[in-house]
Design a protein that fits this description.
By secondary structure, this protein is of the alpha/beta class. It has ten helices and eight strands. The protein has a single domain, classed as 3-Layer(aba) Sandwich (Rossmann fold), CATH 3.40.50.
């Protein structure tokens, strides 16, 4: 069986993986959801110094201090950035990396580079006005839905997400990813693509073309951008299949 370390996306904590964690354990796996510094129950640990390097350290320290080996590291959304950094540092402890509705980050990229300059400026203004200059509040759903599919998030799930989300340390968006970023050559590489991301991959976007070819293995999941909330059992089934 496999040891999964599950890393949540922006504004989320380990709580978001609860149902997927239970389903993976039902398959016989070890599933360890992780909360990053400054978020959820660790919100009080965040500060102006909380940046991308801090989240990379969270992941590598968790794996090393628990002496985990043959790890499958799972990244959802924003977590692609720190997971890419951790994957380049974990050496032979890492067996597999899985990107859920996300993709590995190239060295030198930052989260703000994924959006138009005017959108990045708007986020910076929100942080200055409503986040003490260092925290990014989760946008309302009508704004989130403009860039990320809300499919599968019914009213109850949206209420949970709104109630439990915590502001994202903005340093994790502004700091560029430094190397090393490449996992070892023997590391298995898996992509779980949700509905909108499937369309991008199938449309032939040049910068994503590599994800459709070996050594990458692609699994499609017809739901929105938060599958651990909208389709947790189905996500667990895909992860189980990917490691079996």
């Amino acid at each position: 069986m496999t040891t999964f370390v599950l890393v949540p996306g922006a504004w989320l904590g380990a709580w978001a993986w609860q149902d997927t964690t239970e389903a993976l354990r039902g398959h016989g796996h070890t599933a360890l959801p992780l909360t990053l510094t400054g978020l959820a129950e660790r919100a009080g640990e965040g500060g102006p110094q909380t940046d991308l390097d801090a989240h990379i350290a969270d992941i590598t320290d968790f794996v090393e201090k628990n002496d985990l080996r043959e790890v499958t590291l799972v990244a959802h959304s924003y977590a692609a950035a720190p997971v890419t950094g951790a994957a380049g540092r974990l050496g032979d402890r890492l067996e597999r990396v899985v990107y859920v509705d996300s993709a590995p980050f190239p060295e030198g990229m930052r989260m703000l580079d994924l959006m138009p300059p005017e959108a990045a400026d708007q986020l910076s203004q929100q942080v200055a006005a409503h986040g003490d200059g260092r925290r990014l509040p989760m946008p309302p759903f009508e704004v989130l839905g403009l860039s990320s599919s809300l499919d599968g998030l019914d009213e109850g799930r949206r209420d949970v997400l709104s109630a439990r989300a915590t502001p994202q340390p903005f340093g994790t968006y502004t700091q560029r990813l430094a190397g090393p970023v490449e996992p070892g050559p023997g590391v298995d590489r898996v992509l779980v693509a949700c509905r909108d991301f499937q369309g991008l991959l199938d449309s032939g976007v040049p910068m994503l073309a590599f994800l459709n070819h070996a050594p990458w293995r692609r699994f499609d999941l017809p739901t929105g951008h938060w599958p651990m909330l909208s389709a947790p059992a189905e996500l667990a089934d895909i992860l189980h299949t990917a490691v079996s």
